[in-house]
Amino acid sequence: MKAIRFSLTALTLVVAASAAQAQISDGVIKIGVLSDMSSLYTDLAGAGSVAAARMAVEDSGIEKRGYKVEIVSADHQNKPDVGSAITRQWYDVDKVDVIVDTPNSGVALAVNQITRDKGKAFLVSGAASSDLTGKACSPNTIHWTYDTWMLANGTGSSIVKTGGDTWFFLTADYAFGLALERDTEAVVLKNGGKVLGKVRHPLNTQDFSSFLLQAQASKAKIIGLANAGGDTTNSIKQAAEFGIVKGGQNLAGLLVFLTDIHALGLPTAQGLIVTNTFYWDSNDQTRAFAKRFAERDKGIYPTMIHAGVYSALTHYLKAVEALKSDDGTKVIAKMKETPTDDPLFGKGSIRVDGRKIHPAYLVEVKKPSESKGPWDYYKVRATIPADQAFRPLKDGECPLVK
Amino acid sequence: MTEIFGVPTQALFGQLLIGLINGAFYAMLSLGLAVIFGLLNIINFTHGAQYMMGAFCAWFLLQYLGVGYWWALLIAPLAVGAIGVAIERTMLARLYKLDHLYGLLLTFGLALIIQGVFTNYFGSSGLPYQLPQEFAGAYNLSFMFLPKYRAWVIAVSLVVCLGTWYVIERTKLGSYLRAATENAALVQAFGINVPRMITLTYGFGVGLAAFAGVMAAPIYQVNPQMGANLIIVVFAVVVIGGMGSILGSIITGFGLGVIEGLTKVFYPEASNTVIFIIMAIVLLIKPSGLFGRAR
Predict the structure, then answer these.
(1) What backbone phi and psi angles, to 5 degrees, belong to A186?
(2) What is the Cα Rg of chain A in Å?
(3) Same structural domain, A234 and A372
(4) pLDDT category of residue A113 using cuts at 50, 70 and 90
(5) Residue A298 near residue B123 (C-beta atoms within 8 A)
(6) Cβ of B219 under 8 Å from any chain A Cβ?
């Protein structure tokens, strides 16, 4: 009798496990973290995004319930052609089911298209271009953490409203910079400001003095930095050297990450106003996450991109379990209809155009005297509620919106 | 106000000066490369990584030992130069009799390894290195605001470049070096220790790169990739100037800095490529470079 009962239990377990795996392609949920692993965006995404993905899988407990999950990662070197080649290889040969992160809008737009053609899933945390939920929106992509419209709306409008009404743009010359410039310019003009000039610099530039001199000559009150990562830190550092702020002009870092502030040091970065959707020191849950994360990522505290990777994958795995399938199109549809809830971003939702909705925070970088130590960098000045933080659905020109 | 192509002349002066400052870095780096190539026949692709190590060395000294900028200017080139000597003795010395390509592959591989290791430990965002107090502030030249440190960069680089040129082209030691490249066996026959001289020359070239790295630390982020970005440009400078030509690399370094600066005003999108366009043109017209002689 005992033996029969045992074999019955065993049989049920086997059936349960195989049911769970029935619709999972190759029996494995394969997650590909496609990021910049060697260049200017490595610290703000890169290896940290892989760590965040791993934490999301562990915390979901999905593996204990009979699913097999595998994480792979690759370096797209900020080149759309390299990123595309990896994406095709992953989908066609390595049977990757979902790609996450992908800083660099140029690469992300390429991956977005391939993912759609192959019917897989793409969870964007690193890239910024608002086109991902606009003209290029896709039933296979969710844009999770932030976008250029949100940054423009947060930082841009708050600066114009406090008197910074003439602008000069320093723009990274590729998809992301151009989108950020475009969205910010729209906000500046809408609020009655003027754009006096702009200069577009190649990605990954060392010396900004020539561009800064042009910005200085424009006499604009605000120099808007439509760039990111190392480009932003070098611009800010050299602007200080050339006495731009002392001369009465102000810098607007349109996209500045926690790791950029860390790299600049507070003496140089203090007073900058930045828009973020995640700050590690917000509540007990985010603090606990940050501490665990830092242990895994060389002591780096999580940026909003890292948090976004964690949160997006958490929601993705829930959808996969609910559907018992990792079919890209179906999972993304399921993710859109299910409200989101995770320890880092709280409760939220995903719109039909693929835009994840949550509040944004306008933060100011602390003075060195206000900071208690490394990574204690922000004080929140204002919270932009979720329904106002992102571009209204009707304005995005997304073909999925009817 | 008078204008040239829609840019006020005042602003143009400023841009010329900025170009000259960037040119100073190109000159210092290409000088080291030219010395190494001229005397060792090795194309030193590790140069960018060694420049980066110089900057990191300055950062280590300040961060862990509290040793400031001035001492770093002396210690970093010596320390990195010593590493260079070790590389030359253990690896490069075995390659002199082989084709250029082997030296190129070895040094390129080393550069990738060094940069990879630094990126692994220090990340990619870079580390802050504060400007020394002495250089806080700027000179107000009516047409622009010139940070004191940038003025210092131009002055130092001119001194270093001309000093090196003088030593190699005008002193007895320099004549030994030049003779050894022409015919090492003959020079050795006169009782001069040629291998040691070559080792020290490599160490000196590497030291120059590290020196430029320390000079760069306060204005650029101290970043594992800082050399990788620069080295390709510097190579183009050396090729345009003429491989191995000392004076050529100095003049081309400053000159191309200025041209790049002007590109940043008139068509900034091309500022990363203009130097390579010039390189292509020069190679078509004068394959041995502007100041090189055919070997």
Answers:
(1) -60, -40
(2) 22
(3) yes
(4) very high
(5) yes
(6) yes
Calculate the average pLDDT of chain A.
91
Whether chain B has a CB inside 8 Å of the CB on A206: the answer is yes
Q: The domain containing residue A267 runs over which residues? A: 149-276+360-386
Q: Which of B128, B138, B144 sits opposite A268 (nearest CB)?
A: B128
Strand extents, DSSP E, A272-359: 273-276, 340-342, 346-350, 356-357
Q: What is the pLDDT of residue A305?
A: 97
Whole-angstrom distance, CA of residue A326 vs CA of residue A324: 7
Distance of CA A144 to the CA centre of its chain: 6
Same domain, A302 and A380: no
Residue B69 token pair: 């900028």
Write down the pLDDT at residue B3.
66
**Calpha distance B142→A200 (Å, rounded):** 27
Cβ(A136)–Cβ(A112) below 8 Å = yes
Residue among A173, A203, A213 with most chain B CBs within 10 A, to mutate: A213
> Within a 13 Å sphere around the CA of A342, how many CA atoms are in the beta-carbon half?
28
Shared-domain flag, residues A176 and A237: yes
Question: Strand (E) positions, chain B?
Answer: 3-4, 7-8, 138-141, 144-147
Q: All domains of chain B, ordered by start, with CATH?
A: 3-285 (1.10.3470)
CB of A331 closer than 8 Å to CB of A320: yes
Residues A131 and A162 in one domain: no
Which residue is listed with tokens 């424009």?
Answer: A218
In chain A, residues with a C-beta closer than 8 Å to the C-beta of B219 are 237-238, 241
Please indicate, yes or no, whether residues A257 and A325 belong to a single structural domain of this protein: no
Query: Splitting chain B (295 residues) into consecutive groups of 10 residues, what average pLDDT does each group show?
Result: 65 84 92 86 91 96 93 96 95 86 91 92 85 85 84 93 91 88 85 89 94 92 87 90 86 93 88 91 91 71
Q: Does A142 fall in a domain? A: yes
Put simply, the answer to whether B124 touches A42 (Cβ < 8 Å) is yes
Q: Whole-prediction pTM value?
A: 0.85
Q: Bridge partners of A141?
A: A122
> pLDDT tens digit string along A151-160?
999 999 989 9
Contact state of B271 with A202 under an 8 Å Cβ cutoff: yes
Q: In this structure, are strands B7-8 and B3-4 parallel, antiparallel, or unpaired? A: antiparallel
